Protein: (2Fe-2S)-binding protein
Amino acid sequence: MNNDVVVIGAGPAGMAAAIQASSLGLKALVLDEQPAPGGQRFRAIEQRYRRLRAAGKGLPASEQKGLDLIRRFRESDTRFVDQASVWDISPGGRQISYLHHGRSFTIPANAVVAAPGAYERPVPLEGWHLPGVMSAGAAQTMLKMSGHPVKGRIVLLGCGPLLLLTARQLSNAGANVVGLLQTTGPADFLRATPYLPAALRSATLLKQGLQLLTQTPLVPKVFSLTQASIIGADHVEGVNYRSRGGSGFIECDAVLLHFGVIPNTQLSRLAGVAHDWNEQQECWQPVVDAWQETSAENLMVAGDGGGILGDEAAEMSGRLSILRIAHRLGRISDQSLSKLAAPLQRGLKRLAAARALIDTIFHTPETMLIPSGDTVVCRCEEVTAAEIAAANASGASGLRHLKVQTRVGMGPCRAQMCSMAAMAMITPGIRCGQRPPPPATVRAPIRPLTIGQLAEADVEI
Ligand SMILES: Cc1cc2nc3c(=O)[nH]c(=O)nc-3n(C[C@H](O)[C@H](O)[C@H](O)COP(=O)(O)OP(=O)(O)OC[C@H]3O[C@@H](n4cnc5c(N)ncnc54)[C@H](O)[C@@H]3O)c2cc1C
Structure:
């Protein structure tokens, strides 16, 4: 075994972990399925930098820090394997399997930092399966990778900082944004005021939030959205909506949905570590201690995969997990551990304190969180909300029972897109402190893999 630590994910958390490992003389192997490091926040940033430089321009300061992080990561003594999709992790994390250029490799791991990030909370709306509907994050990824925005008349719908950011980025790139429909309204700001004092400790975060709220594109806006359905025969033709201020219809060719982000727990669930329900963020997340260590020794989860706190916190948590591993390996003393960790742990506390404000302002209303009628909940298996409700009424009380009765969650997305909505449907008191049933079991492979690739796998013991 050549590595002291295997890091999964080269976003801010994974890169910071690798840089920290290298600075302490640990050998780190970093695996990421993308062609370049950066993660969601700094995706394709090196490419963008080269494009802008060729046009005689520079990156904005907020992006420059990502470029600097990637440079430090590339210059560190880290082995980085790009386009490496991790498809399995053994219980407790001592073995990792990944696919790289069509070949499968299984490697042992003494210590693991899983930093797989987050994904957008899927909220099934009527018509969300129509061509022309995509997530705001996917539209943003397309813009980051190609420099081109989505074509046609665009409506952005939902809530969260990323919705506002994408609206601004698309608009700046010349996209035809014709509407911004937000669930957020004055009542949400009012409900969030008790959290303002704690958030004031994160002045930069607050400033960024204010900029997002005040620098939205000059397009028709709807606030306090309570219901929406996407209309079209074989492609999006428009959105019908209802809000506290009335109802209406906007004609469009594309709808970009976004309702915040939730941790990507596929790997941590596959590794069998303990998870807990985060009531504030309405999602499952792995239970981690002050070092990001899960219930399995030397298996850390850093960054948004361990709880949504953003890129700055992701870097801090990545570094903390390595400090713990380095201390166990005898590379740093008790004293150095405390000295290096203290500012990181303080920073994480400060950022976590600001989170309650953000989560309260950007809140999905119950009318949209819980789908009904003919709304397709599971797009892979085409299972509707009515079918799930009927199965639940006939006694299917957990996700496993629902799966067996309706095939919800049995498709290629491995329940990533439907399980949150199905769970909300069968947990009537989810907004009143009622804990939902445990999430669906995750089984390998979590990425598509052929029998041939499995048979020819390179296994290192
Ligand atoms: C779609 C989307 C867009 C976002 N855009 C922004 C933005 O513009 N600005 C902003 O401030 N914040 C944005 N965020 C929030 C951002 O994710 C966090 O602030 C921050 O990037 C979290 O860092 P991380 O390292 O935890 O995860 P990420 O940056 O998400 O990095 C996770 C990495 O893990 C890799 N990975 C995941 N699973 C596997 C696997 N099985 N095998 C191999 N590799 C794997 C991914 O390819 C990715 O590179 C976005 C979030 C999402 C979901």
Residues 8-14, 31-34, 39-41, 85-86, 115-120, 137, 140, 162, 165, 261, 303-305, 310-311, 314 surround flavin-adenine dinucleotide (CB under 6 Å). The chain has 16 helices and 23 strands. The chain has a mean pLDDT of 93.
